[in-house]
Specification:
The protein has about 425 residues and is an alpha+beta fold. The chain is built from 13 helices and 17 strands. Helix 3 crosses helix 4, helix 11 packs parallel to helix 13 and helix 12 runs antiparallel to helix 13.
Length: about 425
Protein backbone atom coordinates (compact mmCIF):
# COMPACT_ATOMS: atom_id res chain seq x y z
CA UNK A 1 0.00 0.00 0.00
CA UNK A 2 1.38 3.41 -0.99
CA UNK A 3 1.41 6.62 0.93
CA UNK A 4 -2.22 7.40 0.08
CA UNK A 5 -3.66 3.91 0.47
CA UNK A 6 -5.56 1.89 -2.10
CA UNK A 7 -9.00 3.49 -2.23
CA UNK A 8 -10.96 2.79 -5.41
CA UNK A 9 -13.10 5.56 -6.86
CA UNK A 10 -15.77 5.12 -9.53
CA UNK A 11 -17.22 8.21 -11.20
CA UNK A 12 -20.98 7.60 -11.34
CA UNK A 13 -22.20 10.95 -12.64
CA UNK A 14 -20.46 14.00 -14.01
CA UNK A 15 -21.72 17.56 -14.50
CA UNK A 16 -20.06 20.85 -15.32
CA UNK A 17 -19.45 21.82 -11.68
CA UNK A 18 -19.04 18.47 -9.99
CA UNK A 19 -19.02 14.70 -9.94
CA UNK A 20 -20.65 11.91 -7.97
CA UNK A 21 -18.15 9.22 -6.99
CA UNK A 22 -18.32 5.89 -5.20
CA UNK A 23 -15.49 5.23 -2.76
CA UNK A 24 -14.53 1.71 -1.70
CA UNK A 25 -11.48 0.75 0.31
CA UNK A 26 -11.04 4.26 1.67
CA UNK A 27 -8.96 4.99 4.76
CA UNK A 28 -12.00 6.29 6.69
CA UNK A 29 -9.68 8.93 8.13
CA UNK A 30 -12.13 11.81 7.56
CA UNK A 31 -15.57 11.06 8.93
CA UNK A 32 -18.27 11.93 11.45
CA UNK A 33 -18.58 9.71 14.53
CA UNK A 34 -21.21 9.35 17.22
CA UNK A 35 -20.03 9.96 20.77
CA UNK A 36 -23.15 8.54 22.39
CA UNK A 37 -26.43 6.93 21.39
CA UNK A 38 -28.27 9.05 23.96
CA UNK A 39 -30.34 11.91 22.56
CA UNK A 40 -30.58 15.19 24.44
CA UNK A 41 -34.33 15.70 24.85
CA UNK A 42 -33.86 19.33 25.94
CA UNK A 43 -32.39 20.55 22.65
CA UNK A 44 -33.31 17.55 20.45
CA UNK A 45 -29.70 16.82 19.46
CA UNK A 46 -27.23 13.96 19.69
CA UNK A 47 -23.45 14.29 20.20
CA UNK A 48 -20.99 13.67 17.37
CA UNK A 49 -17.51 14.72 16.28
CA UNK A 50 -15.92 15.21 12.90
CA UNK A 51 -12.52 13.54 13.01
CA UNK A 52 -9.43 13.42 10.83
CA UNK A 53 -7.01 10.62 11.63
CA UNK A 54 -8.83 10.19 14.93
CA UNK A 55 -8.45 13.83 16.03
CA UNK A 56 -11.71 15.77 16.59
CA UNK A 57 -11.88 18.81 14.31
CA UNK A 58 -15.40 19.92 15.18
CA UNK A 59 -17.85 19.06 17.94
CA UNK A 60 -21.25 18.47 16.36
CA UNK A 61 -24.67 18.16 17.95
CA UNK A 62 -27.07 17.85 14.98
CA UNK A 63 -30.78 18.08 15.64
CA UNK A 64 -33.13 15.24 14.81
CA UNK A 65 -35.79 17.86 14.01
CA UNK A 66 -35.27 18.70 10.30
CA UNK A 67 -36.17 22.39 10.63
CA UNK A 68 -34.29 22.94 13.93
CA UNK A 69 -30.69 24.09 14.10
CA UNK A 70 -27.87 22.16 15.72
CA UNK A 71 -24.92 23.01 17.96
CA UNK A 72 -21.26 23.32 16.98
CA UNK A 73 -17.99 24.01 18.78
CA UNK A 74 -14.35 23.90 17.76
CA UNK A 75 -12.27 20.83 18.52
CA UNK A 76 -8.55 20.20 18.65
CA UNK A 77 -8.25 21.36 15.05
CA UNK A 78 -6.00 20.68 12.08
CA UNK A 79 -2.99 21.96 14.04
CA UNK A 80 -3.00 18.64 15.92
CA UNK A 81 -3.30 16.41 12.83
CA UNK A 82 -0.62 15.05 10.55
CA UNK A 83 -2.26 14.67 7.15
CA UNK A 84 0.11 14.32 4.18
CA UNK A 85 -2.86 13.88 1.85
CA UNK A 86 -4.02 17.47 2.37
CA UNK A 87 -0.48 18.74 1.92
CA UNK A 88 -0.20 16.73 -1.30
CA UNK A 89 -3.08 18.52 -3.00
CA UNK A 90 -2.60 21.97 -1.50
CA UNK A 91 0.02 23.19 -3.97
CA UNK A 92 -2.02 22.20 -7.02
CA UNK A 93 -5.17 23.77 -5.63
CA UNK A 94 -3.25 27.00 -5.18
CA UNK A 95 -1.95 27.19 -8.73
CA UNK A 96 -4.15 26.90 -11.75
CA UNK A 97 -6.76 24.33 -10.76
CA UNK A 98 -8.93 23.94 -13.86
CA UNK A 99 -11.96 22.12 -12.46
CA UNK A 100 -12.85 18.74 -11.03
CA UNK A 101 -13.38 17.01 -14.36
CA UNK A 102 -9.97 18.05 -15.66
CA UNK A 103 -8.08 17.67 -12.38
CA UNK A 104 -9.70 14.61 -10.83
CA UNK A 105 -6.37 12.85 -10.30
CA UNK A 106 -5.21 15.77 -8.15
CA UNK A 107 -8.06 15.03 -5.73
CA UNK A 108 -7.43 11.30 -5.34
CA UNK A 109 -5.33 11.65 -2.14
CA UNK A 110 -8.16 13.64 -0.58
CA UNK A 111 -10.83 11.17 -1.73
CA UNK A 112 -8.76 8.35 -0.27
CA UNK A 113 -9.30 9.82 3.21
CA UNK A 114 -13.04 9.14 3.06
CA UNK A 115 -14.93 6.13 4.34
CA UNK A 116 -16.78 3.90 1.90
CA UNK A 117 -19.84 5.53 0.38
CA UNK A 118 -21.23 7.75 -2.37
CA UNK A 119 -19.98 11.34 -2.44
CA UNK A 120 -20.76 14.52 -4.32
CA UNK A 121 -17.68 16.62 -5.05
CA UNK A 122 -18.46 20.11 -6.35
CA UNK A 123 -16.32 22.99 -7.53
CA UNK A 124 -18.55 25.74 -6.19
CA UNK A 125 -18.54 28.94 -4.15
CA UNK A 126 -19.01 29.44 -0.44
CA UNK A 127 -19.21 32.54 1.75
CA UNK A 128 -16.59 33.32 4.46
CA UNK A 129 -19.34 33.68 7.09
CA UNK A 130 -21.32 31.32 9.32
CA UNK A 131 -24.82 32.15 8.09
CA UNK A 132 -25.64 34.16 11.24
CA UNK A 133 -23.81 37.37 10.32
CA UNK A 134 -20.45 36.39 11.83
CA UNK A 135 -17.05 36.17 10.14
CA UNK A 136 -16.35 32.45 9.69
CA UNK A 137 -13.24 32.33 11.92
CA UNK A 138 -14.83 34.44 14.65
CA UNK A 139 -16.68 31.60 16.38
CA UNK A 140 -17.07 30.85 20.10
CA UNK A 141 -15.43 27.66 21.31
CA UNK A 142 -18.41 26.54 23.39
CA UNK A 143 -21.33 24.70 21.82
CA UNK A 144 -23.45 27.28 20.00
CA UNK A 145 -26.57 27.11 17.84
CA UNK A 146 -26.06 27.85 14.14
CA UNK A 147 -29.00 28.62 11.90
CA UNK A 148 -27.25 27.09 8.88
CA UNK A 149 -26.80 23.80 10.79
CA UNK A 150 -30.30 22.60 9.94
CA UNK A 151 -31.70 20.34 7.24
CA UNK A 152 -34.05 22.90 5.80
CA UNK A 153 -36.13 26.02 6.40
CA UNK A 154 -39.90 26.04 6.21
CA UNK A 155 -41.51 29.11 4.66
CA UNK A 156 -45.14 29.21 5.66
CA UNK A 157 -45.81 32.00 3.17
CA UNK A 158 -45.05 29.58 0.32
CA UNK A 159 -45.87 26.27 2.00
CA UNK A 160 -42.41 25.22 0.91
CA UNK A 161 -39.09 24.03 2.37
CA UNK A 162 -35.61 24.93 1.13
CA UNK A 163 -32.04 24.65 2.38
CA UNK A 164 -29.08 27.03 2.37
CA UNK A 165 -27.10 25.06 -0.21
CA UNK A 166 -23.97 24.26 1.86
CA UNK A 167 -22.84 27.82 1.24
CA UNK A 168 -21.30 28.68 4.64
CA UNK A 169 -18.06 27.57 6.28
CA UNK A 170 -16.79 26.71 9.76
CA UNK A 171 -13.11 26.79 10.81
CA UNK A 172 -11.01 23.79 11.75
CA UNK A 173 -7.74 25.66 12.35
CA UNK A 174 -6.77 27.60 15.46
CA UNK A 175 -6.86 31.38 15.20
CA UNK A 176 -3.22 31.70 16.26
CA UNK A 177 -2.27 30.35 12.83
CA UNK A 178 -3.51 33.57 11.22
CA UNK A 179 -0.80 35.13 9.04
CA UNK A 180 -1.42 38.56 7.51
CA UNK A 181 1.23 37.99 4.85
CA UNK A 182 -0.60 34.87 3.62
CA UNK A 183 -3.85 36.79 3.43
CA UNK A 184 -2.18 39.55 1.41
CA UNK A 185 -0.66 36.91 -0.87
CA UNK A 186 -4.12 35.60 -1.71
CA UNK A 187 -5.61 39.08 -2.06
CA UNK A 188 -2.96 39.81 -4.69
CA UNK A 189 -3.57 36.44 -6.38
CA UNK A 190 -7.36 36.87 -6.43
CA UNK A 191 -6.94 40.34 -7.93
CA UNK A 192 -4.41 39.30 -10.57
CA UNK A 193 -6.81 37.75 -13.07
CA UNK A 194 -5.06 34.39 -12.87
CA UNK A 195 -7.03 31.18 -12.12
CA UNK A 196 -8.23 31.34 -8.52
CA UNK A 197 -6.93 28.86 -5.95
CA UNK A 198 -9.48 26.59 -4.31
CA UNK A 199 -10.32 25.97 -0.68
CA UNK A 200 -11.44 22.50 0.45
CA UNK A 201 -14.43 21.84 2.71
CA UNK A 202 -16.25 18.77 4.02
CA UNK A 203 -19.99 19.25 4.23
CA UNK A 204 -21.48 17.30 7.13
CA UNK A 205 -23.29 20.17 8.85
CA UNK A 206 -26.14 20.86 6.41
CA UNK A 207 -25.68 24.50 5.31
CA UNK A 208 -22.23 24.66 6.94
CA UNK A 209 -19.07 22.96 5.72
CA UNK A 210 -15.91 22.36 7.73
CA UNK A 211 -13.00 24.17 6.07
CA UNK A 212 -10.12 21.71 5.70
CA UNK A 213 -7.80 23.88 3.64
CA UNK A 214 -8.06 27.58 2.82
CA UNK A 215 -8.50 29.65 6.00
CA UNK A 216 -6.29 32.43 4.63
CA UNK A 217 -8.00 32.22 1.23
CA UNK A 218 -11.31 32.73 3.04
CA UNK A 219 -9.86 35.76 4.84
CA UNK A 220 -8.76 37.20 1.51
CA UNK A 221 -12.23 36.65 0.05
CA UNK A 222 -13.79 38.44 3.04
CA UNK A 223 -11.46 41.42 2.60
CA UNK A 224 -12.46 41.59 -1.08
CA UNK A 225 -16.16 41.09 -0.23
CA UNK A 226 -16.18 38.14 -2.64
CA UNK A 227 -17.29 34.50 -2.50
CA UNK A 228 -14.67 31.79 -2.00
CA UNK A 229 -14.03 29.20 -4.72
CA UNK A 230 -14.29 25.93 -2.83
CA UNK A 231 -14.23 22.20 -3.47
CA UNK A 232 -17.05 20.90 -1.28
CA UNK A 233 -17.40 17.19 -0.47
CA UNK A 234 -20.78 15.84 0.67
CA UNK A 235 -21.57 12.25 1.61
CA UNK A 236 -24.76 10.79 0.16
CA UNK A 237 -27.64 9.17 2.03
CA UNK A 238 -30.68 7.10 1.15
CA UNK A 239 -33.81 9.15 0.49
CA UNK A 240 -37.06 9.12 -1.43
CA UNK A 241 -40.19 6.96 -1.40
CA UNK A 242 -40.23 3.16 -1.31
CA UNK A 243 -40.65 2.81 -5.06
CA UNK A 244 -38.22 5.64 -5.86
CA UNK A 245 -35.14 5.30 -3.64
CA UNK A 246 -32.19 7.58 -4.40
CA UNK A 247 -28.78 8.37 -3.05
CA UNK A 248 -29.24 12.05 -2.24
CA UNK A 249 -27.05 14.87 -0.96
CA UNK A 250 -29.63 17.33 0.36
CA UNK A 251 -33.16 17.12 1.72
CA UNK A 252 -34.52 17.64 -1.79
CA UNK A 253 -34.96 14.30 -3.58
CA UNK A 254 -35.25 16.04 -6.96
CA UNK A 255 -31.73 17.45 -7.09
CA UNK A 256 -29.72 17.05 -10.26
CA UNK A 257 -26.98 15.00 -8.59
CA UNK A 258 -29.15 12.26 -7.04
CA UNK A 259 -28.40 8.67 -8.03
CA UNK A 260 -31.18 6.08 -8.40
CA UNK A 261 -30.71 3.15 -6.06
CA UNK A 262 -30.44 0.43 -8.71
CA UNK A 263 -27.76 -1.75 -10.28
CA UNK A 264 -27.78 0.30 -13.50
CA UNK A 265 -26.52 3.41 -11.71
CA UNK A 266 -22.93 2.23 -11.51
CA UNK A 267 -22.92 1.78 -7.72
CA UNK A 268 -20.21 -0.78 -6.87
CA UNK A 269 -21.60 -4.14 -5.75
CA UNK A 270 -20.11 -3.77 -2.26
CA UNK A 271 -21.90 -0.48 -1.64
CA UNK A 272 -25.09 -1.61 -3.38
CA UNK A 273 -25.28 -4.59 -1.03
CA UNK A 274 -24.78 -2.34 2.03
CA UNK A 275 -27.53 0.05 0.88
CA UNK A 276 -29.87 -2.83 0.04
CA UNK A 277 -29.39 -4.35 3.49
CA UNK A 278 -30.06 -0.98 5.10
CA UNK A 279 -33.29 -0.64 3.10
CA UNK A 280 -34.39 -4.17 3.95
CA UNK A 281 -34.00 -3.44 7.66
CA UNK A 282 -35.94 -0.18 7.29
CA UNK A 283 -38.81 -1.80 5.38
CA UNK A 284 -38.97 -4.61 7.92
CA UNK A 285 -38.86 -2.01 10.71
CA UNK A 286 -35.78 -3.62 12.15
CA UNK A 287 -33.19 -1.59 14.02
CA UNK A 288 -29.85 -0.97 12.40
CA UNK A 289 -26.91 -2.51 14.27
CA UNK A 290 -25.48 -0.01 16.75
CA UNK A 291 -22.64 2.07 15.30
CA UNK A 292 -19.14 1.97 16.69
CA UNK A 293 -18.85 4.96 19.03
CA UNK A 294 -15.98 7.42 19.04
CA UNK A 295 -13.45 6.48 21.72
CA UNK A 296 -10.69 8.97 21.00
CA UNK A 297 -9.53 12.01 22.95
CA UNK A 298 -12.19 14.18 24.55
CA UNK A 299 -13.52 16.67 22.00
CA UNK A 300 -12.74 20.06 23.49
CA UNK A 301 -11.48 23.32 22.09
CA UNK A 302 -7.78 24.08 21.74
CA UNK A 303 -8.35 27.31 19.81
CA UNK A 304 -6.80 30.58 20.97
CA UNK A 305 -8.78 33.80 21.37
CA UNK A 306 -8.30 36.56 18.81
CA UNK A 307 -9.86 40.00 18.35
CA UNK A 308 -10.70 40.26 14.65
CA UNK A 309 -10.16 43.49 12.74
CA UNK A 310 -13.10 45.54 11.42
CA UNK A 311 -12.25 44.55 7.84
CA UNK A 312 -13.40 41.06 8.82
CA UNK A 313 -16.23 41.73 11.25
CA UNK A 314 -17.83 44.30 8.94
CA UNK A 315 -17.42 42.16 5.82
CA UNK A 316 -20.43 40.07 6.90
CA UNK A 317 -22.75 42.77 5.52
CA UNK A 318 -21.74 41.68 2.02
CA UNK A 319 -23.01 38.12 2.42
CA UNK A 320 -26.44 36.54 2.95
CA UNK A 321 -27.65 34.85 6.09
CA UNK A 322 -28.65 31.20 5.95
CA UNK A 323 -32.31 32.20 6.13
CA UNK A 324 -31.97 34.74 3.31
CA UNK A 325 -30.23 32.26 1.02
CA UNK A 326 -32.83 29.56 1.69
CA UNK A 327 -35.62 32.07 1.05
CA UNK A 328 -34.06 32.94 -2.31
CA UNK A 329 -33.86 29.24 -3.13
CA UNK A 330 -37.51 28.74 -2.15
CA UNK A 331 -38.56 31.58 -4.45
CA UNK A 332 -36.67 30.08 -7.38
CA UNK A 333 -35.24 33.19 -8.98
CA UNK A 334 -33.33 31.24 -11.60
CA UNK A 335 -35.35 32.64 -14.53
CA UNK A 336 -35.09 36.37 -13.79
CA UNK A 337 -31.55 36.91 -15.07
CA UNK A 338 -32.60 38.28 -18.45
CA UNK A 339 -35.81 39.99 -17.37
CA UNK A 340 -36.36 43.73 -17.48
CA UNK A 341 -37.52 45.56 -14.36
CA UNK A 342 -41.04 45.74 -15.81
CA UNK A 343 -41.06 41.99 -16.38
CA UNK A 344 -39.77 41.30 -12.86
CA UNK A 345 -42.39 43.63 -11.43
CA UNK A 346 -45.14 41.69 -13.23
CA UNK A 347 -43.55 38.36 -12.25
CA UNK A 348 -43.66 39.25 -8.55
CA UNK A 349 -47.37 40.06 -8.60
CA UNK A 350 -48.13 36.80 -10.36
CA UNK A 351 -46.90 34.88 -7.31
CA UNK A 352 -49.09 33.45 -4.57
CA UNK A 353 -47.42 35.68 -1.95
CA UNK A 354 -46.12 38.83 -3.71
CA UNK A 355 -44.96 40.41 -0.43
CA UNK A 356 -42.61 37.52 0.38
CA UNK A 357 -41.29 37.37 -3.19
CA UNK A 358 -40.76 41.14 -3.43
CA UNK A 359 -38.95 41.42 -0.09
CA UNK A 360 -36.73 38.43 -0.82
CA UNK A 361 -35.96 39.66 -4.32
CA UNK A 362 -35.04 43.17 -3.18
CA UNK A 363 -32.69 41.75 -0.54
CA UNK A 364 -31.02 39.58 -3.19
CA UNK A 365 -30.59 42.48 -5.63
CA UNK A 366 -28.97 44.69 -2.99
CA UNK A 367 -26.66 41.89 -1.84
CA UNK A 368 -25.51 41.02 -5.35
CA UNK A 369 -25.24 44.65 -6.57
CA UNK A 370 -27.53 43.85 -9.49
CA UNK A 371 -27.52 46.62 -12.10
CA UNK A 372 -31.34 46.75 -11.97
CA UNK A 373 -31.46 47.37 -8.21
CA UNK A 374 -32.12 51.12 -8.11
CA UNK A 375 -34.83 51.00 -10.76
CA UNK A 376 -36.57 48.04 -9.13
CA UNK A 377 -36.45 49.50 -5.62
CA UNK A 378 -37.80 52.83 -6.85
CA UNK A 379 -40.64 51.09 -8.67
CA UNK A 380 -41.60 49.13 -5.54
CA UNK A 381 -41.33 52.26 -3.37
CA UNK A 382 -43.70 54.10 -5.73
CA UNK A 383 -46.37 51.41 -5.53
CA UNK A 384 -49.92 52.67 -4.94
CA UNK A 385 -50.41 52.54 -1.19
CA UNK A 386 -52.70 49.82 0.18
CA UNK A 387 -52.74 47.27 2.94
CA UNK A 388 -51.24 44.68 0.57
CA UNK A 389 -48.38 46.87 -0.65
CA UNK A 390 -47.40 48.58 2.60
CA UNK A 391 -44.79 45.96 3.56
CA UNK A 392 -43.28 45.97 0.06
CA UNK A 393 -42.92 49.76 0.14
CA UNK A 394 -41.38 49.60 3.63
CA UNK A 395 -38.83 47.00 2.50
CA UNK A 396 -37.95 49.08 -0.56
CA UNK A 397 -37.30 52.12 1.63
CA UNK A 398 -35.08 50.14 3.98
CA UNK A 399 -33.10 48.77 1.04
CA UNK A 400 -32.55 52.32 -0.28
CA UNK A 401 -31.19 53.78 2.95
CA UNK A 402 -27.58 53.80 1.69
CA UNK A 403 -28.39 55.46 -1.64
CA UNK A 404 -27.34 59.02 -0.82
CA UNK A 405 -28.22 61.19 -3.82
CA UNK A 406 -30.63 63.97 -4.70
CA UNK A 407 -33.21 61.78 -6.46
CA UNK A 408 -33.42 59.27 -3.61
CA UNK A 409 -33.54 62.00 -0.97
CA UNK A 410 -36.53 63.60 -2.74
CA UNK A 411 -38.34 60.24 -2.63
CA UNK A 412 -37.74 59.97 1.12
CA UNK A 413 -38.89 63.56 1.67
CA UNK A 414 -42.15 62.69 -0.09
CA UNK A 415 -42.72 59.84 2.37
CA UNK A 416 -41.94 62.05 5.37
CA UNK A 417 -44.37 64.72 4.18
CA UNK A 418 -47.13 62.67 2.57
CA UNK A 419 -46.73 59.10 3.82
CA UNK A 420 -48.66 57.45 6.63
CA UNK A 421 -47.10 57.39 10.09
CA UNK A 422 -45.49 53.93 9.68
CA UNK A 423 -43.76 54.72 6.38
CA UNK A 424 -42.91 58.25 7.49
CA UNK A 425 -41.05 56.91 10.53
CA UNK A 426 -39.03 54.57 8.31
CA UNK A 427 -38.24 57.38 5.86
CA UNK A 428 -36.90 59.66 8.64
CA UNK A 429 -34.10 57.16 9.27
CA UNK A 430 -32.61 58.14 5.90
CA UNK A 431 -30.92 61.13 7.57
CA UNK A 432 -29.98 59.31 10.78
CA UNK A 433 -26.25 59.09 9.97
CA UNK A 434 -25.97 62.53 8.39
CA UNK A 435 -23.38 64.89 9.89
Amino acid sequence: MGLFGSAKTDIIKQRSDGIVVAVTGGKAALKCELISMEEDEKNMTYPMVMTLNGVPLVQMHPSYCPTCCGLLATGYGLDSVKCPELAAISEKLNSGFEGIGEEFEVLRPLIGLLEDGIYLIRDTQTFPVDGDRHFFWDVPDELTYYTAFSDEFYFSELWKCADSESAFIYPTQSRDRYDESRVQHYIDLFSSGRPKPRAVAFNAMKGLSALLDGHHKACAAARLHAPLDTIVITKGHLCGARNNIHIGFTCDTETEYDVPMNKESGIPSKLYKQFAEQLARAFARKKNPPPELYKGVTAESRFTVREWEKCYTESVDCYPTAYQLAAESACGFGDIGGMTVEEIYSYVFEQEDPVFYARTLMSRFVRTNDSRTRELLTKFARLPFSGDTKQIIASALRCMMNMKDEETEKLFIDFVVYGDDYLSDIAKDYWEDAD
